[in-house]
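Design review, sub-item: ligand-bound model
Attendees: FS, YL, KQ
YL presented the inputs for the (2S)-amino(hydroxy)ethanoic acid complex:
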Amino acid sequence: MTSTAASLTIDPLRLSAEIEALAQISDTPYPSVTRVLFTEADMRARDYLKRCYAEAGLTVREDAVGNTFARWTGTDTHVAPVGTGSHTDAIPNAGRFDGVVGVLGGLEAIRALQRAGFQPRRSIELVMFTAEEPTRFGFGCLGSRIMAGSLSPEKLAALRDKDGISLDHARATAGCSGTLASAQLPLKYYSAFVELHIEQGYRLERAGLPIGVVTAIAAPATLRVQLTGEGGHAGAVLMPDRHDPVLAASETMLAVDRIARATGNLNSVATCGLVQVLPGAVNSIPRDVTLTIDVRDIDLARRDGMLTDIRAAARSAAGKYGCGWSDDVLNADAPARCAPEILQAIHASCDALGLRYQDMTSRAYHDSLFMALICPTSMIFVPSQGGFSHRPDEFTKPEEIADGVRVLAATLARLAE
Ligand code: HGY
Ligand code: MN
Ligand code: MN
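KQ shared the predicted structure:
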């Protein structure tokens, strides 16, 4: 294995060209990237990736929700493969590296091993997960949740996007076939799973380190709050007679921030990223306000404590302004602990390559959060310039990505031997 690590040659120019080519497939102008589940841009991106997989001689299959698997068949097809991969969907006006580094970087890791003459005993399978981002159906990691069997058939059937389109209709329109149940993977389907990803924070950059080894992944929860007033004419309804849900929403949003800071732990984060006000006319008093709130922590009890307090704050604010209130916890996942044996494999690869690293938690969630439910999993981080992500100025240098790909390739070789 050490000989493989030493003989790995990464092609950073080709990888950069592929990342830039994919970045051009977007519903917003470069360098901003928008690629929402099953939109025309998402479908063109999928076609581009399949062409790249075919050039590398990989065998490609897609499951019933569009998760895509590109396999390099090993010498022993009777043992579980090793998995790697990430996502290529992107929230509106995002960057070009989030997820993409793990898919195209995973492909380059496989090509580097092929160039080095490595022949895996275990097959190596590159996964492009469907809908890691929550944009279309309200919570993230839809594809990997379904692979891990984390969503009930009832919950899946009830999913609707903002236009009322169901997941089943959306996936059928995208050409996916089969039942969602058929997309669930058995436990240990992979012997190991390793995801390469940008850090989306500034710890590696500030530490001056090229590699992060992920020991745990924060648990996200998504809360939707509905606040209802009476609406009415902005000129005719006098102030004493109003029940304006925007006021209750404003106090709720301030409570979200206050409650997250009040835990005193930097791993506690809460964000109200979506605010919808209806009817949305300047001269009409709001009638309905919907807040969608993202609450996370590495510690489950602390995360659930924040969730409880935020729900109570919203209910109290609604009462204060005489508004209706309801809420819905869309998802409340458990944090993932990464597998010691995978951490060791990544550490050994960094050492063999002479690359310094630090163990760290991931405050962003990833598909690895759900892969950890079915097999030993960990992640490799590369630095994010300024810690920026989910922004068009998201950036990681080609040589930094190449280091991450080297570590991934050496780790896959170690796990697939
Ligand atoms: O929101 C996240 O943590 C991920 O980037 N979707
Ligand atoms: Mn993201
Ligand atoms: Mn991501």
